[in-house]
From TrEMBL:
GTP binds at D59, I60, R61, S62. InterPro entries: P-loop_NTPase, RapZ-like, RapZ-like_N, RapZ_C. It holds the Pfam family PapZ_C. The lineage of its organism: Bacteria, Bacillati, Bacillota, Clostridia, Lachnospirales. This is RNase adapter RapZ. Residues 1-158 form the RapZ-like N-terminal domain. It comes from Dorea amylophila. Keywords: ATP-binding, GTP-binding, Nucleotide-binding. Residues 165-284 form the RapZ C-terminal domain.
Length: 293
C-alpha cells in the first residue's frame, strides 16, 4: 500500500497534482479533514483491500483542525504506518500573479484581502510540512506536462527524486536580465549571426545558426567549462535544499547565440535523470529593431 499526502502552498498546483495522480491509478481524496487521516490510513491498510495506492490532499483549508496535523503525523510514525509527503510550492511573485489572474482571495489574506500577507502566513503554518516532505516540487516555472512528467517519475516509475528542478533560460540583454535567474552567463563574446544576411532571420533553433555559433574553439570551450561547473554545483545545491535552479544565458537580442548555447547546455544536462530540467527561450520571438552589438 502506498499512501501519499499531497500538500503545499495554495496556488502551487495541489489540485492539479491530485488529478494527475488519479489518472495514474491513485485513489484520491482532496481536502480530507485532518482528524480523519488516521482512520483513512487504517482503512487503506486493511489486507485484501482493492485500493493499493492513495493520495490525500491536505492544506490550510482544514481550518483549526490543521494544527492537529503535526501531532497526527507523529502518531502515524509511532504506529509504523507508512506514508509519503509531496509538497508543492512556488515563489511569492508567481503565486501573487496566479491569484490576480484568477481573481481569487487567498484563504489567509484576512480582512484587508492582501494576498502577500496570506502567503506569508501560510508559509509559516506549513513550515513543519515542508521540512519533513519526501518530495519537494517548485512549480514556479513548470508547464502542466512538465509537472506530470515529474509526478510520473516519482509515483509511477519509482525513480529516485532529488528535489531539484532546473530551468535553462535564454534571453536578450536589451530586454533585461531575468529577475528570477540564479546564474547568469553572457555569451556576447561569441560570433554574432546577426551580421550574416542569410542567418539574421533564423534563430539558434536552426541548424545553420547552431553550426555557425559552435564552429569555433571559444564556443566549445565555454560550453565544456560551463557544463562542468553546473554539474559540480548541482549536488551542492541539492545538499543545501535548493529546489529550483534558473540558469540564464544571454546575448544581445536573445535569438541566436544565447538560444544556441542554452540548447547545448540543456542537451548536456539532460543526460542525467537525477533532476528535472526544462528549457525556455524568453526573447526568441521579439523582433524589435535595435542595433546589434
Amino acid at each position: 500500500m502506498r499512501c501519499v499526502i499531497v500538500t503545499g502552498m495554495s496556488g502551487a498546483g495541489k489540485s492539479t497534482a491530485l488529478k494527475m495522480l488519479e489518472d495514474m491509478g491513485y485513489f484520491c481524496v482532496d481536502n480530507l479533514p485532518v482528524p480523519l487521516i488516521p482512520k483513512m490510513a487504517e482503512l487503506l491498510s486493511v489486507p485484501g483491500t482493492e485500493i493499493n495506492k492513495a493520495a490525500l490532499g491536505v492544506d490550510i483549508r482544514s481550518g483549526q483542525n490543521f494544527y492537529e496535523l503535526e501531532k497526527i503525523l507523529k502518531e502515524l510514525d509511532r504506529s509504523g504506518t507508512r506514508f509519503e509527503i509531496l509538497y508543492l510550492e512556488s515563489s511569492d511573485d508567481v503565486l501573487i500573479k496566479r491569484y490576480k489572474e484568477t481573481r481569487r482571495f487567498h484563504p489567509l489574506s484576512g480582512k484587508d484581502g492582501r494576498v502577500e500577507e496570506g502567503i506569508k502566513e501560510e508559509r509559516k503554518r506549513l513550515k513543519f510540512l515542508r521540512e519533513r516532505a519526501d518530495y519537494l516540487i517548485d512549480s514556479s516555472h513548470m508547464l502542466t506536462r512538465e509537472l506530470r512528467a515529474e509526478l510520473s517519475k516519482i509515483f509511477v516509475e519509482n525513480k529516485e527524486y532529488k528535489n531539484l528542478y532546473i530551468s535553462v533560460l535564454s534571453f536578450g540583454f536589451k530586454y533585461g536580465i531575468p529577475a528570477d535567474a540564479d546564474l547568469v552567463f553572457d555569451v556576447r563574446f561569441l560570433p554574432n549571426p546577426y551580421y550574416i544576411d542569410e542567418l539574421r532571420p533564423k534563430s539558434g533553433n536552426d541548424k545553420e545558426v547552431r553550426e555557425y555559433v559552435m564552429d569555433n574553439d571559444k564556443a566549445r570551450m565555454f560550453l565544456a567549462k560551463l557544463t562542468d561547473m553546473v554539474e559540480f554545483l548541482i549536488p551542492n545545491y541539492v545538499q543545501e535544499g535548493k529546489t529550483q535552479l534558473v540558469i540564464g544565458i544571454g546575448c544581445t537580442g536573445g535569438k541566436h547565440r544565447s538560444v544556441t548555447l542554452a540548447n547545448e547546455l540543456y542537451e548536456a544536462l539532460s543526460k542525467n535523470d537525477n533532476y528535472g530540467i526544462r528549457i525556455e527561450h524568453r526573447d526568441i520571438g521579439k523582433d524589435a529593431i535595435t542595433k546589434a552589438r
